[in-house]
Predict the 3D structure of the following.
Amino acid sequence: MKSICGADCNNCGYGKNNNCKGCTESKGCPFGKQCFIYKYIKNGGTENFDLFKKQLIDEFNSLNVAGMPKIDDLFPINGAYVNLAYPMPNGKTVKLLDDNDIYLGNQLECEFNDGELVKCYGLVAGLDFILVSEYGENCSSPEIVVYKKR
């Protein structure tokens, strides 16, 4: 499988188990939906995509979330890995993402971890939103820190 964005398709267990052929062979639809990263690179080139990624990185860093380290990169990731079920005030849970979409994301360990309690920040972005969540080990007890339309 080949990608044009730099994703390591050969080590994606989700893709292998879901008949993914990569974005090159599927023309940017590895899970049946058009990947915005593929479309961005095909229409604007790699340089424009790199500028877009830098803008997203700057947006995440400008949030100044307490305990969240600055980031310097975002990576293509399948929605199935980052589509967490967040608890709502009414007691129900809601997933905000699509398992079959590709997003840009990163995971960072909270700077305030004390060795016993480990918290992480999950960063996810699409063309029109950014999401920062905080969660424990194995994505337990996720909470939305920031969800912002772009």
